[in-house]
Structure formats: C-alpha cells, structure tokens
Write a structure and sequence with these properties.
CATH topology of the largest domain: Citrate Synthase, domain 1
CATH architecture of the largest domain: Orthogonal Bundle
Strand content: 5-15%
Distance between the termini: 67 Å
Number of domains: 2
CATH superfamily of the largest domain: Citrate Synthase, domain 1
Shape: globular
Number of helices: 17
Order of helices and strands: EEEEEHHHHHHHHHHHHHHHHH
Number of strands: 5
Bound molecules: carboxymethyl coenzyme *A
Strand order of the largest sheet: 3-4-5
Largest sheet: 3 strands, antiparallel
Length: about 425
C-alpha cells in the first residue's frame, strides 16, 4: 500500500531516512536530521528565488499555472470580473466569504468615509520635486503614514489591524491621485464620498473644479474590473515582501511600503510601465520583426510576457483584452494595440516563446488601456498598487494568525574566506 512518505538515501553514509509527505511537499526541517557526523549542522535545501519553496499554507488565492486558472477564495476570476465589483471582492479576499447586503453596505460606507488623508500628509507630498515618480511618492507616503497612526504597531490586536486595513484601502486612491496631481502641477482634489471607489478616484485625478464630477460609467467600470484583476496573486514578490517584513511585527504601513517597493520593479508591477515604453520604442508594426530578433538574441526581454507561475495564457490578460475594446469605444483605439497584437501573434507561433511557455501576462495589455484613459505612463505601477493593497493586507493578517509562522529568516551557504587576521592599513 502506498505511503505518504519519501525515503531518502544518503549515499555519503548509506543511511536511509523516511520523511512525511503532505500536499506533495516535504518539510525542509525534516532534512536537518540528515548528517554525516553527529555534530554536523544537518542538510538544508538551496533554492535561490524560491522557485520551488512553499513558504506558507494559504486559503486566499488559488492559481493553476499550467491551466491558466485564478480564483479568489474559490471564486473564478472570470465570474468576479463579470458580476462583482472591487469593494465586494476586497471584502471577500479579506474575510473569506462574499458579504451579505448588510455587510457590503457597512463595508462600502466605512471605506468611502475614510478616504481623506491628514493635511500633513498632503503637505508632505507637496515637498516632492515636481518631476518625482508617482510610485516613489506613493511608497514614501505610505511609509510616512505609520507616523500618523502609531497605534498601528499593535499588530497582534485584530481590532487595531482592521482599523488600519480600512484606512489603507480607503486612502490609497487618495495618495495615488495626489501623486498624479503633483506630477502635473495641479491642485490636489479632495475625495468625494458620494462617488464609488473608482468613481471617486477618477474624480480626484480629473476634476478641474467644474462642479460635481460625473465619472464616465464605462471608464469607471473598466477601472473597477482592472482593480478586481489586480487584487491578489498569492505569494508573488511584493506579497512575499509584505509577509517577510510583517513577520518581524512591523506596522502595516511600513510593511506595505516595502511590498509596494517590490512591486515597483520592472520584472513585477513595473512591467506595465515597461511594456508601454517598449511599445512606444517599437513605434510601428513594421519594426516588430527586428525587435523580436533582439529578444531572441537575448539582447532584451519582451516585457509583459512570461510568468513564474503561469505557463499558459494569464487569465487576467484574457479579460483585459476584452475590456480594452469597451474602453476604446469611449477613448478611441490606441495605435499601440496593433503593435501589441503583432508581438503576441509572433510570440504565440515562435518556438523561442512556445518552448519556454511564454504567454502575455496581466501587464501586457493593461498599459494600453491606462494610456487610452490618459494616465501618464509613470502612474501605471501605482494603478497596480491601489487594488493590490487588500491582497497584501489579507495575506499579512493570514500570516500573523498562522501559528506556524515566525520571523522570516532564510539560511545561506557561506563561500567566503575562512578566518584571517586583520592587517593594519600601512601593511596592506
Ligand atoms: N522575454 C524573453 N525571454 C523571456 C521572458 C521575456 N519576457 N521571460 C522569460 N524569458 C525566458 C528566460 O530568458 C528563460 O530562458 P532560458 O531558460 O533559455 O534561460 C526562460 O524564458 C524562463 O524564464 P525565467 O527568467 O527563468 O522565469 P522566471 O520565472 O524567473 O521569471 C518573469 C518570470 C515574469 C520575471 C520573466 O518572465 C520576465 O522577466 N518577464 C518580463 C517582465 C514582466 O512582464 N513581468 C510581469 C510579470 S506579471 C505581473 C506580476 O504579477 O508581477
């Protein structure tokens, strides 16, 4: 009868060890008993970039990278994008269940009534250079917010945690919009709590004080769906950073600033910005073959392609492609779309990409939509960070409630010098 164990033979000693297997996984600590000498430290596993290391059990987001499946709390992303809205999805991700009408009304009210930031936060943002990157402003401002809410350091108290989660989800659009207005040299627009989450965000970006702002319903809904698609994505670089920083019991503002900093990189949430810059550089469909030659010669990456987990079409990219058509009906079709479609067409046929399972990811088409909606390119990573806030915070709570988690602290293989004596400077 099959057993849920793994038998390991150490050929250095001839010893055999049997370790339990659970969820197709062995515990790295079970390797520690494997030793040559009794006083050895014991065996470890080496996994740079965590390519095959599970760091947590989670009940939030499920991804099947081979099949291109993404679910939040069991609900397929396609159904949520079609039938739900961002705040409902945020409630689901945080609490594990869809809200009743009463729960939803209360959640929506409380979020929409915490959107204002402290006036000193505004002044702090005004101190940035006129051409500061909005993501740099966003990260710094989120970190600075911990100084406004010192009680947030009580991370083990669930009520205190919930208060910070509400504040962060409510205020990130305001911080993001202020960073945009700053980069344009425009006066900051205060939130309008009568509008929806995304409607208010558009108001704070666009309103030139021409009376009550009325968001375009198509753009408001498109942005809401984009927010749903970006809300969580299990243990990616930014979320892993949130958990690692949070594991030392830092306050959530400091931890989230770290997560947002990880997201900023062009290999992660900064890829949407990098895709747009790449498309602008290619400039014309006729330049696509030459560009692809450079990618295959490994001179550069095809930004917006490839994923650590998805080895199939990213389901978020499929949904975004559909939204693009609706947005273009309002904004007009982006000429960059033809370049993107040609890149995709070639990549899906070319052996270089096919053999490596490289498909468009979430960032490939999102930038084209953002650009059509007239967001400056530098705002794109910020547009990723706003909805990801709920994912980071829900994963942070899950980590704090997990009795198996401790301060994150990986091991290393030391390959440096053995002990040597200090040499005075005059003798070097
Ligand atoms: N263009 C060209 N070649 C690529 C690309 C790409 N975009 N992505 C991966 N490859 C190649 C890579 O060179 C490697 O080839 P080989 O095995 O011959 O050395 C192979 O494909 C496997 O790639 P990898 O770098 O080992 O894969 P990874 O899991 O370490 O990296 C990735 C994943 C997303 C960082 C990478 O695919 C990449 O840099 N893509 C471009 C940036 C991008 O679009 N990032 C957004 C990710 S989705 C949003 C998010 O959740 O953050």
């Amino acid at each position: 009868m099959a057993q849920n164990t793994l038998t390991i033979t150490d050929n250095r000693t001839g010893e055999t060890y049997e370790v339990p297997v659970e969820y197709d996984t062995i515990r790295a600590m079970d390797l520690r008993q494997i030793k040559v000498q009794q006083d050895d430290f014991g065996m470890m596993s080496y996994d740079p970039a965590f390519k095959n290391t599970v760091s947590t059990k989670s009940t939030i987001t499920y991804i099947d990278g081979a099949k291109g499946i993404l679910r939040y709390r069991g609900y397929p992303i396609e159904q949520l994008a079609e039938q739900s809205n961002y705040l409902e999805v945020a409630y689901l991700i945080l609490n594990g269940e869809l809200p009743t009408q009463e729960q939803y009304d209360e959640w929506e009210y409380v979020i929409l009534h915490h959107t204002f930031v402290h006036e000193s936060t505004k002044q702090l943002m005004q101190a940035f250079r006129h051409d500061a990157h909005p993501m740099g402003m966003f990260i710094s401002t989120i970190a600075a917010m911990s100084t406004f809410y010192p009680e947030s350091r009580d991370v083990l108290d669930p009520d205190t945690r919930l208060k910070q989660i509400i504040r962060l989800v409510a205020k990130v659009p305001t911080v993001a919009a202020f960073s945009y207005r700053h980069s344009r040299g425009l006066p900051y627009v205060y939130p309008d709590n009568d509008l929806s989450y995304t409607g208010n965000f558009l108001n704070m970006l666009d309103n030139m004080r021409q009376g009550k702002y009325e968001p375009d319903p198509v753009l408001e809904r498109a942005l809401d769906v984009l927010f749903i698609l970006h809300a969580d994505h299990e243990q990616n670089c930014g979320t892993a950073t949130m958990r690692v920083i949070g594991s030392s019991h830092s306050d959530p503002y400091s931890a989230m600033a770290g997560a947002a900093a990880a997201l900023y990189g062009p290999l992660h949430g900064g890829a949407n910005e990098a895709v747009l810059r790449m498309l602008l550089e290619i400039g014309d469909v006729k330049n696509v073959p030459e560009f692809m030659k450079g990618v295959k010669n490994r001179e550069r990456l095809l930004m917006g392609f490839g994923h650590r987990v998805y080895k199939n079409y990213d389901p978020r990219a499929k949904i975004i492609k559909k939204i693009a058509d609706e947005v273009f009906e309002v904004t007009g079709r982006s000429p960059l779309l033809d370049i993107a479609l040609e890149l995709e067409r070639i990549a899906l046929e070319d052996d270089f990409f096919v053999s490596r399972n490289l498909y468009p990811n979430v960032d490939f088409y999102s930038g084209i939509i953002y650009q059509a909606m007239r967001f400056p390119i530098a705002m794109f990573p910020v547009l990723f960070a706003i909805p990801r806030t709920i994912g980071w915070l829900s994963q942070w709570v899950e980590m704090l409630n997990d009795p198996e988690q401790k301060i994150a602290r990986p091991r290393q293989i030391y390959l440096g010098y053995d002990e040597r004596d200090y040499v005075p400077m005059s003798e070097r």
